[in-house]
Write a structure and sequence with these properties.
Two copies of one chain form a homodimer.
Chain A: H1 7-12, H2 20-24, E1 28-33, E2 38-45, H3 58-74, E3 81-92, E4 99-111, E5 114-122, E6 128-140
Antiparallel strand pairs in A: 1-2, 2-4, 3-6, 4-5, 5-6
Chain lengths: ~150, ~150
């Protein structure tokens, strides 16, 4: 078992606060297999995320998938590394009601600092409602981009 | 000028409440050119959307672009029509701090009920921070998908 250190694991294991954006999405860490590059997380879609039809707006499903692929990669990085998501492509398969959603993410391929990822969001019946692919870049924490 | 009726314009013009998901993103309607298929909207990225570095998590930038392309199409539809976003692809160009962001959306091409859209999110200096393309389908309101 690889040492679980760095900002991501500090958040997951309670040594650092959950980032605000993750808290807003009701993010919970469930499990990760660092060797396999897989992660399972969960989200809580509240009534604050619905459209007039009462479904979770796809906007928030996309947000949850962003916050699934990011952690899938972060879980595998060293304490001095961070990641930047360059591109996220989301397919909206089915509508879903508010509630707990499971995010399953996976590193498909890593080539140097370039990483290809995929993720799926599942409802309470384990039906896939939304899928995504993403491209990310591993960067030294010291050069993580910060807006002016 | 085309008659502005239907659920989208009811929300924009205050005859119906702003949908919860839009309110959560701080959505504001700014302007639309229905003939040209263009729209300008705005969002307020709050501290609830930030990552540990203090930037708006890309998850919420993707959400805002979802809620830009949707309205770009909805603004052009009749009162008995709705739309379903099938696919959204987002490129994260630059980090951005919380604040007011402008969303500019455009119908690139409509072929029957299939519609291709694009959008960009701009910061307070009008610098593009995130872009997206999307595919959507126009559907009768009566057959809008609802989760079980």
């Amino acid at each position: 078992m690889q040492a679980r250190s760095g900002p991501f694991w500090d958040g997951v294991e309670g040594r650092a606060p959950v980032p605000p954006a993750a808290a807003t999405l009701g993010f919970e860490f469930v499990d990760a297999d660092v060797e396999a590059g897989t992660i399972e997380v969960a989200f809580t879609a509240t009534e604050a995320f619905i459209n007039p039809a009462g479904n979770v707006l796809g906007a928030f499903l996309a947000a949850m998938l962003y916050d699934t692929v990011g952690p899938a990669l972060l879980a595998t990085l060293g304490p001095d590394q961070f990641q930047s998501t360059l591109q996220l492509s989301v397919s909206f398969l089915r509508p879903v009601r508010p509630g707990r959603l499971t995010g399953k993410g996976r590193i498909v391929h890593r080539d140097g600092d370039t990483v290809f990822l995929e993720a799926a969001l599942l409802d309470g019946d384990a039906t896939v409602v939304t899928t995504a692919t993403a491209t990310a870049q591993v960067i030294p924490s010291a050069s993580a981009p910060t807006a002016a």
